């Protein structure tokens, strides 16, 4: 376990944090659980400015001894059933050498604290069904699979490319 983990909200306008965010997200994208392909150059070039222009976006970066080792990207949303904001964790990535050392839990704790401060009713995320390590980490943090009524089954995350 690292002696000192710190987590901070990312400043999308800070060039050092921009580079770290892109590097960590690209590392995640190249991982089989992130799709196995590098981020496109155009994505790398515009991502931070796009995030800076997206009021619902918030990112957190974890550091060990001043080195960025983990990233959590989230988007604020809204629960119509609770009439309150919610936070969706869109990406969470930890450098391989720092996995299983509490980095992911620290990132989730920072996101949860931020969400509570913003009046959110819940955190949501999606995870690949084959990513058992991540699923165990999320369950340790308190996440559960989502179902309104158990007899109707669990919610599934779906997409349609536009």
UniProtKB/TrEMBL annotation:
This is Acetyltransferase (GNAT) family protein. Pfam families: Acetyltransf_1 (PF00583). InterPro entries: Acyl_CoA_acyltransferase, Bact_Acetyltransf, GNAT_dom. GO terms for molecular function: acyltransferase activity, transferring groups other than amino-acyl groups. Keywords: Acyltransferase, Transferase. Gene3D superfamilies: 3.40.630.30. It comes from the Bacteria. The lineage of its organism: Bacteria, Pseudomonadati, Pseudomonadota, Betaproteobacteria, Burkholderiales. PROSITE patterns: GNAT (PS51186). Residues 10-162 form the N-acetyltransferase domain.
